[in-house]
Each structure stands twice: as C-alpha cells, then as structure tokens.
Amino acid sequence: MFPLLALASLSTLATAAPASDSSSCTGTISSLDDVSTAVQCTTVNINAFTVPAGETFNLDLLSGTTVNVLGEVQFGNVSWAGPLFEVKGDDITFNGNGQLWDGGGPFYWDGLGTNGGVTKPHPMMKIEISGTLSDVYVVNAPAQCFSVSNPAALTITGVTVDNSQGNYPNSNSNGLPAGHNTDGFDVSANDLTIEKSTVINQDDCLAINRGTNIVFQDNYCDGGHGISIGSITSNVVVDGVTIQGNTVVNSQQAFRIKTDEVATNSTVSNIVYTDNTATNCTEYGVLITQSYPASLGTPGNGVIISDVNFSPGTTTLTAASNAYMVAVDCGEGSCTGTWDWSGLKTSGGEVGPMDNITVITGYTQ
Ligand SMILES: *[C@@H]1O[C@H](CO)[C@@H](O)[C@H](O)[C@H]1NC(C)=O
Ligand SMILES: *[C@@H]1O[C@H](CO)[C@@H](O)[C@H](O)[C@H]1NC(C)=O
Ligand SMILES: *[C@@H]1O[C@H](CO)[C@@H](O)[C@H](O)[C@H]1NC(C)=O
Ligand SMILES: *[C@@H]1O[C@H](CO)[C@@H](O)[C@H](O)[C@H]1NC(C)=O
Question: What is d(CA 142, CA 181) in angstroms, rounded to the nearest whole number?
C-alpha cells in the first residue's frame, strides 16, 4: 500500500513537469495571427511585420518571458484611438535590439496633437511589465509615445523616441511644427528606472503623473518641454524621484513641476535633481508652478510640494537670453520642507518671479 502511494505521488510530479516544459518553447510572431500561440511560450521572437491599421499589437505574456525583437514593426495608418502596442507581464526581459517601431506620425500630424484635428492613436507604446525593457527604437509616434504603469520594479534602458521629423511644419499643420503632444514617457508607476534613453520630440521628455521611487538618469532630451513632474491632478501622490545625470537641450524648460491650479489632496515630495546639464532653455530653466495650465498665473494651494532639492551634485543650466533661468509660482503655504538649491548653477537669462516661496536656500545663480 505505502509504496503504491509513493508511486502515485511520483507520477503526479511527473505529469506536472511537462506542463511547465511546454511553455519553455519559442514562439514566433510574423503577423497578429501568430500572437495567441506565441504568448504560450516563455521565449517570444518578433519578426518584421506590419500591424493592420486600427488594431492593437497586444502581448499578454507569461511570467518570466524573454521577448526578442528581430525586425522592424510598422503600423497601418488609420485615424483611431489606439494604442498601437501594448505589453503586459511580470518579470519580462524585452530585448528591442535597436529594431525600429514606426508609428507613421506624418500620416496623422497636423500640429494639433491630441488637442484637436484628426484622432491620433495614443499612447503608441503601452508598457505594463516588470523586469527590463531595452533598446527599443521608436520613430514618428502619432502623439504620446510611451505610457508606463508597471506591476513591479521595471528598468527601461537604451530606448529611443525619435520624433525629430515632427519639428517641421507639414501641409496640414498651418505652419506649426507638425508633431504635437508627442510626450516621450508618461509615467504612473512605482519602482521605475528610465536610463540611457533619448527623446527628440515636441512635448514632455518625461511626465510623471503619479508614483513613488522613480529614477530618471543619464538620458538625453532634445527639443521638447523637458523633464516634468505633472501635471498633477487631484488625489495623487508623487514621492521619491531622482533626476540625475541627464542632458536637456533646446527645450522650453529643462526641469518643471506643474500642479493643476484646481487640484486638491495631492502631494509631491522628495524630489532630487543632481548632476544634470541643460542648454538653450527657451522659456524656463527651472519652473515650479502651481497655476497649471498657466506657467505663471494664480497659483492654487491644494497640492503640497515638499523637499525639492538641487543637491548634492551640480546641475548646470543655460537659458536663452529672453528666458527665465528659474521661476517659482507656489500657492500660499503649499511649498514646504527643505529646498536646498546650492547645486543649481544657472546663466543666460533672468531670474523670474519667485512667489510664495521662502523655503529655497543656497541658490546663487
Ligand atoms: C504610414 O504613413 C507614414 C507617413 O506617410 C509612412 O511613413 C508609413 O510608412 C505608413 N505606414 C505604412 C504601414 O504604410
Ligand atoms: C486623497 O487622496 C488619496 C490618494 O492619494 C485617496 O486615497 C483619498 O481617498 C483622497 N481623499 C479624498 C477626501 O478624496
Ligand atoms: C534653441 O532651441 C530652439 C528650440 O528647439 C531652436 O529653435 C533654436 O535654434 C535653438 N537655439 C540655438 C542657439 O541652438
Ligand atoms: C500666493 O498664493 C496665493 C494662493 O495660495 C495666491 O492667491 C497668490 O497670488 C500667491 N502670491 C503670489 C505673489 O503669486
């Protein structure tokens, strides 16, 4: 009796083993038809293919999956809401291998972004994984490019968003830059690092809408609206953000915190800027505003911003001659804590308004 039981439990083990083995296959995607089978495997290879217009390339992956992108991914062009690509899963290794993801931006661009004109699929790349996402190379996002909301710790490294073509007007944009609202990374995430990445665009390089423990380091932002926290709406928390070692060029602002004038019950705390460089800031070097969507308006005080530090390392910025190097537009009593700005070295423009702010120490230009 006893040996028989042992045998029975052994055979239970033996039948369990093939189940996990069966996912150790390699799935290959060369069209959307391949996706449902390929995602049964913990290795997924993506060949060059075109996603049909109006459909999302949606990868819902098994835990522990490795994705290898082996060819260019294009998307058929049609005006619709998107997203174009969506990926979900835990403990994912996503190797972009520098392959292009072409959003077809020029087909949609009309200078109006998501504020008007034709409906543009956005975000282009919806990332909901933990693990790592590396070497993904996106060109011509129709509007907002990456949105990131991870289930657990995620590192994004070596990613490119090249929307440089959107800097120029086209036949639909009435003389305006054709690309608009082409945010690089829109983030609502905890335990996220974005590093060694490049964004050339016409809106925020990074916009953190909420989240904790976020590091943005060694990135390059060109031509857009710089590195932003916000805009902050009601009932959200941003806590623990490190902006470090980044280079920001030719952008409206380099470093901005923007909270909606009407927002309430939100907090932004423990923000560290260190070892960054910014040149040719065309409107502001640093802008902290509680009057968003105005840059300098009538600030609200329903969002508490605390402990915003430009230290310990040096952040150097140069503003254009008609720009403000620094401007702060806080509501009464809503910018609090320790603001050590001794590492901020600015030149090139003027110091702008510094409203309702008594907490800043150490800033000497
Ligand atoms: C979509 O349109 C853009 C802009 O004209 C073009 O570059 C891209 O190749 C088109 N995509 C496809 C799949 O045809
Ligand atoms: C304030 O915001 C927090 C989230 O940060 C939320 O849990 C809470 O319900 C909000 N309070 C009110 C009164 O809305
Ligand atoms: C500064 O940046 C603006 C906006 O990107 C650009 O048009 C201008 O040419 C740049 N100026 C210099 C001196 O690089
Ligand atoms: C100070 O904040 C209050 C609102 O909290 C605002 O009405 C006032 O305009 C601010 N002061 C300045 C100089 O901006």
Answer: 9
